[in-house]
Amino acid sequence: MRLADDNNAIASKATHPNTLRPTPGARISVAPMMAWTTREQRYFMRQISRSALLYTEMVTTGALIHGDRTRFLAYHADEHPIALQLGGSDPAAMAECAVMAETHGYDEVNINVGCPSDRVQNGTFGACLMGEPQKVADCVAAMKARVSIPVTVKTRIGIDNQDSYEFLHAFTRAVATAGADALIVHARKAWLSGLSPKENREVPPLDYARVHTLKRDFPALPMSINGGIVDLDTAAVQLEHVDGVMIGREAYKNPYVMAEVDRRFFDAHAAVPARGDIVANMRGFIADHLAAGGALKDVTRHMLGLYHGQPGGRAWRRVLSEQGHKKDADLNVLDAALARVEPTEAVA
């Protein structure tokens, strides 16, 4: 059953330059993932798709305000379009960090209302904030008052036993009325206790239809869907119902799944990069990383799945895994791994 909403009021905000403004690249995006969507991973992903929107790992407001903000906010210029995901629940702190994001050139700042881990809950942010929609709305409003870049919210369809459509609708209305520029919905509810973060990505059933209904009820609010999407054909079907698709673990496990994103969803004339060219494009970045004192594994651990399902793919992964962690590992390891895949993929 569809519910009445305040969408006319929300739609009227679309004329304001600071509201309901989707981020470039949001049609297809790669989900923020702790310990995975690092600066090294994002640069690698940018060699595969030039247009998809990339997200940082979640960064807490405390880390930015009291920690090494330069380190947390650093990114390569080639990573655009790029969004900073924030974890926090204090409107003033969230607004302060949103200003940092804009000052550092981020294209979007996103509020994490989807992570169910105990650590995140103890910090009173993440998925538990779904139970406090006004607090999320206050964060959105405070951030919107301070920045001109889009402020978005990533959430679930529910938490624990608060998983009715009415609950999701009320949450969406609150954040949309506060001025959120877009909503990204992981189409599973989250169990705040009893399931691990990994289980929360797999056990609660997907409910794409609920997200589609939500989009129909809030047509003026840009909305992306996330959860269980593993190929571009499925993404194309989802785009018949919503404005954007966020791909998560599959883009990490099998990164070449993103190779046709630009051509299919952004520019029909865009080139599809060959795997060997992607590797070649990474060499300069890796050399700079090593020269700055970084380890080869910091980069190559994100590249393990590039030849997923290809002849020599297991050997590629094995060489990088077994040799990339060594203290003196350098570009010779990358060359040795590349020599194990199909000759047609090798580069000089």
Detailed description of the structure:
With 348 residues, the protein is an alpha/beta fold. It folds into two domains: 7-265, Alpha-Beta Barrel (TIM Barrel); 275-345. Helices cover 41% and strands 12% of the residues. Strands 1-2-3-4-5-6-7-8 form an eight-stranded parallel beta barrel, surrounded by five helices. Strand 5 (151-156), helix 8 (165-177) and strand 6 (182-186) form a beta-alpha-beta unit. Helix 2 (39-48) runs antiparallel to helix 14 and helix 16 (313-323) runs antiparallel to helix 17 (331-338). The longest helix is centred in the C-terminal third of the chain and has 17 residues, at 275-291. It is globular and about 55 Å long. Its cofactor is FMN. The record marks 112, 198, 201, 314, 317 as: Interacts with tRNA. Residues 1-24 are annotated as: Disordered. Catalyzes the synthesis of 5,6-dihydrouridine (D), a modified base found in the D-loop of most tRNAs, via the reduction of the C5-C6 double bond in target uridines. Specifically modifies U20 and U20a in tRNAs. The active site is at 115 (proton donor).
Number of strands: 8
Low-confidence stretches at least 5 residues in length (pLDDT < 50)?
11-18, 344-348
Order of helices and strands: HEHEHHEHEHHEHEHHEHEHHHHHH
CATH architecture of the largest domain: Alpha-Beta Barrel
Q: Main beta sheet, described?
A: 8 strands, parallel, barrel
Looking across the biggest beta sheet, what order are the strands in? 1-2-3-4-5-6-7-8
CATH topology of the largest domain: TIM Barrel
What amount of the residues lies in strands?
5-15%
Q: Provide the gyration radius in Å.
A: 20 Å
For the record, the count of structural domains works out to 2
Number of helices: 17
Helix content: 40-55%
Shape: globular
**Span of the ends, CA to CA:** 60 Å
CATH class of the largest domain: Alpha Beta
Pfam families: Dus
Function: Catalyzes the synthesis of 5,6-dihydrouridine (D), a modified base found in the D-loop of most tRNAs, via the reduction of the C5-C6 double bond in target uridines. Specifically modifies U20 and U20a in tRNAs.
Region (Disordered): 1-24
Protein name: tRNA-dihydrouridine(20/20a) synthase
